[in-house]
Amino acid sequence: MTSAVEARAGSDAPTGQRPARRRRRRRNERVGYLFILPATAHLVLFALVPILFSLYLSFHEWTSPSFLEAPFVGLDNYVSLFSDDPFWHAMYNTAYYTVLSVPIGMAVSLALAVVVNQKLRGVNVFRAVFFMPVITSWVAVSVIWITLLSPDAGLVNYLFRLLHLPQQNWLDDPHTAMFAIVLINTWKTAGFSMVIWLAGLQAVPRELLEAASIDGAGKWRQFWNVTLPLLAPTTIFLVITGVIGGFQVFTPMYVITEGGPLGATDVAVYHIYQRAFEEFSMGYASAQAWVLFAVIFVVTLLQLWFIRRRGESNLI
């Protein structure tokens, strides 16, 4: 009723006031565009332009200082990828890393979220401590873990000796290097996923948990049959973003293992980096980057298709 009266009052406004209102509205719009201009310019200059430039380079062979001298080679860079065994080995390592890191990271972060969701004294301190690695530099974290996992003077092997367990050459053994990187990544990123899980846990209606308790369900059955199904949107979000992030992993391989030992941790982005900035084959590296993008895009579409097939399309 009120809105109808206001609309009628606006329509009954003097004719001379309408152009003034339109001018004021346009002025406000221009001010809004000015506010978003810096962010838009940053996005265009440092995201959109490099993306389009890399697409341009993927059809050229750029090895000289000037990209204007790069000859057009058509699809040759993409065709060469089919017989590039080191690149597909790096893609395999990337998929292997993702398959390991996503479920382990989600399980650890969910456990942390359940703990810090309890009404405990000093729980906010624990939340801050668990989140602290997230805001720590990857380079600093990598240097710390190189020291901790040192085969001779590392704290981890020292604890193994105290427990009479066989010591490991964590980062120099092809059989353990990737798993060590996964554990480091879990320690570094679990705090972020913990916050997302915690938001989902706090959104679970208390009435449902109380009803389950009245029906005789224990804490575990409440979590398994009530809480976990209601966390489906959070789970989907973390799975999709985790897979995308897993395929883009770079810093720990670059700082800790440099793709070794024996190529055991040579992942796609690190391989592309070597092609581009060590071998200066920018065109071929750009083609590899676009193939990686296509793989991530297809994997994400498959995840969304699987979710919709299970009848959970309302969650995305």
UniProtKB/TrEMBL annotation:
Residues 91-303 form the ABC transmembrane type-1 domain. Residues 1-25 are annotated as: Disordered. InterPro entries: ABC_transporter_permease, MetI-like, MetI-like_sf. It is found in: Cell membrane. The chain crosses the membrane at residues 31-57, 95-116, 128-148, 177-199, 228-250, 287-307. Signal peptide: none annotated. The keyword Transport applies. PANTHER family: ABC TRANSPORTER PERMEASE PROTEIN, INNER MEMBRANE ABC TRANSPORTER PERMEASE PROTEIN YCJO. It is a multi-pass membrane protein. This is Multiple sugar transport system permease protein. SUPFAM superfamilies: MetI-like. Belongs to the binding-protein-dependent transport system permease family. One of its GO terms (biological process) is transmembrane transport. Keywords: Cell membrane, Membrane, Sugar transport, Transmembrane, Transmembrane helix, Transport. GO terms for cellular component: plasma membrane.
